[in-house]
Amino acid sequence: MTFSPELEAKFAKMIQNYPAGRQKGALIPMLLFAQDEVGSMTPELLEEVSKRLKVKRVEIEEVIGYYTMLTREPRGQHHVQICTNVSCMLTGGEELYQHACKKLGIGNKQKTADGQFSLEEVECLGACSWAPAMLIDYDFHFNVTPEKLDGLIESLKKTQ
Amino acid sequence: MADPITLTIDGRQVKVPAGTLVIEAAKTVGIEVPAFCYYEGFSLQAACRMCLVEVEKMPKLQPGCTLPAAEGMVVYTESPKVVEARKGTLEFLLSNHPLDCPVCDKGGECELQDMTFRYGAGESRFVEIKHHVDEKQWSPAVYYDAARCILCYRCIRVCDEGIGVGALGLTYRGVAAEITPSHGDHLECDECGWCIDVCPVGALTSGTYRYKSRPWEMNYAGTICTHCSDGCKTTLSVRNGEVIRANNRDRSGVNGEFLCVKGRFGFDFVHSEERLQSPLLRKDGNLEPVSWSEALAAVAARFGEVKARNGKFGIIGSTHTSNEENYYLQKFARQGLGTANIDHHRSGDVPALLDALSGKTGKLATSADLYNAKAALVIGSDLAQQHPFLAFQLRANFRHHQAAVYTVTSGVVREEQYAAKSLHCEAGQELGTAQSLAEDLKKHGDLVILFGDAIRGQAVRQLVEFGESLGIPVKYVCLVDYANSRGAMDMGLLPNLGPGYHAAPAVGLSRDEMLAAADLDVLWVVGSNPFKTTAPAGTSTFTVVQDLFLTETAQRADVVLPAASAYEKNGTVTNVCGEVQRLKQGPKVMGTKSDLEIFGLLAKELGLNLGIWTSDKVFEEIRRTVQGYNVPLPVIATGGAAQTAAVNGGVPQTGKPEYIRSAGDTLFTSGTLGRYSKMLNRVMEAPGQLYKP
Q: CB distance B171–A56 less than 8 Å?
């Protein structure tokens, strides 16, 4: 399979960052960026990465199974991740997550019917000082309230 | 090696080489530090936390499996703190364990069971519902029960490092973590089943053995695998006369714990429904079951009549029968029947090698040499396919000692993954191509050269000349096909050579010449299937076949005598490296007789005096008469291997090399035996095309 010229260029540069014989190290970033473009960890994608980095298929399976940011299920155009770990839970993370479920009409690791949003309840995002915290795609949001969440989702809907 | 260091373990002084791990240092003085994930010879994991030990001046307990011993270290392996930690570890390992020991295959030989018995987490503080996952079938050979798995990574490491396939991985995390096979829901691999054997619990179970028996209800017979010529020790688990498992957990034999799919699962031909269990005699054109006495009388009558009128015999021996049987058969032929026409399917030019090495000693490599040599050169053989154990030895040598492996083959072989240099050439160009590696090979301290049937006749002598010109110690292995191919030659199943490669009184016909001879009066085929590829020329030849199955050859025979397989008899066999090892009878198949017994009864019927036909007596005679076979009895009696060179001097006539050809078996085929093994045919990798794991 082939990727967009931009992504190919990115990969070419990325592989240079690793010493000879250790290109395997590029596995996680490569999977992540490829997932952004392809949408999920498709079998063709695994095959391609396995070939390029000379990594066994089962080693990639190990990585995908371990890291929740890599997924076999296609996500929505925007992926909403809400933390419900201790600090966030104490400051309303649970309520925020419940609100998001209601607002989007979906549950954990589900996708809206129009494919615009997907939702995931996650563990610590490393932002305990500004809890509750959430991620939308690669954008980080802190001290989130249900109102702020509504606003973010509405603005994303408008930009479509 | 650096100076030894001294440490104290449980109050005892221990002296070990620097770099030794605490767990190994403890072993040297008989102290067992329990561990699940630690496995000798493989990479360190420190995953199970079972081997924690207390070390003075270290604030926390340390894993003994990754802690190198240091000078003056004081270690306690059974202190109250350690025992408490182990109890906690077990409580944790058991938190999701189904505790279905009464029905688990591993019950009775389970390391987790033993440790729980020893450190006793009798009750658990966990009240949560156990996480359950249904068991999965990965292949006909391998099943996985994730709930029982303690995630020790042993299976992953033996598959990746030991076998070089790497078909297993560990996916997901926390309570959901489980072992995953190479293709999501199924395995595509060598199907060697080593993962099942190393599993310390009952998570990986064997397709042939699961839910069939308890380990204490079986008898165990340590014998030699009857498939390829590598001579791996395999221990048959026999219940009510039926083999239900084969493994080598006691690591006896040349192969340690290694077995390929044939050694571990390929025993099932023994109980095939198609086994012959009664002699067959041709009556009115049809083969009909008759009694042993009737069949033997019919054979003896014809043999006697043909011998009396100086008729022409042809005898084709087997590459699966024992040394005793082969020796007795050639004696039967030469002394009893007075014929020189005796041969077998030759797959490697051992006589030429022995002749070329005439007068030199220590030139034949043992299987252990493959693990210890600094370098190895493989010529014209796909070792991983045809000699799985030799391939394993080379891979282990590379892994542990960074040995330099060179390959010269016509196609891609698995050794290339780690080989120092691999050359491809047209078939027939192997010798010249190998010679181009001279400068590379000279760099190494010593070398083992392994060559297949591509190098035969004059080429063997040229290869030895080349090897000897390198100026470094070189040892050789002439690769042959089957369990006792080497023994068949050593015992004189050759038209021109008797036992020990002495010149035979007369030179007879080769196997191919016998098949082409139209005037043979009798063709006696023992454990071989020549008619599969070549139709016999003789139309009025009286054909006697001794075999396990009604093969293409047996179908055309006049008398068929049902023989016992190598797993059903005692005796000795000689592997590809010339190592003599003992066969031990496991099961018994009703109606069959060992080939030796058949020879003996026939000799008696004919009134020939060829000596007592028990394997021990014949072996005594072999030890007396065949040079090199005077091997130390205690070594082989206790399941060891003794290397022999049946000749050290010129071989008078090394025979016709043009008749030497390998059957070209692969990992999943094994001549006739392989055809009747259900497991070898059921695995998806069968029938043995080269697959790329």
A: no
